[in-house]
Amino acid sequence: MHNSNSPHILNTSANLLGICFVLLTSIQVMNFTEKTVIDSVLAFAIFMFMTSCLLSFLSMRSKNVPARKYELYADYIFLSGLSSLFITAMLVTFNLVK
Questions:
Q1: So what's the pLDDT on residue 32?
Q2: pTM for the full model?
Q3: Within a domain: 11
């Protein structure tokens, strides 16, 4: 059996998915009338983390070769979601979005 990172990916993706939902909801509650880049990047991150959660769950439930493929895809998709959150943080930190 290979060293499985799927439980870690699932746990972390689920936590970051919740954080993204809170952030996106907070932006909507503040009644910003115009959409910003942050909304789009957070929506992308939500999609990536949800996909990563599903693939890591499938990896834990599958056997042999499909499990490794699911875990690899979940890992890369998780990394893209994490990168999008980093971009969002940098946009906010350096006031690049009004």
A1: 64
A2: 0.85
A3: yes
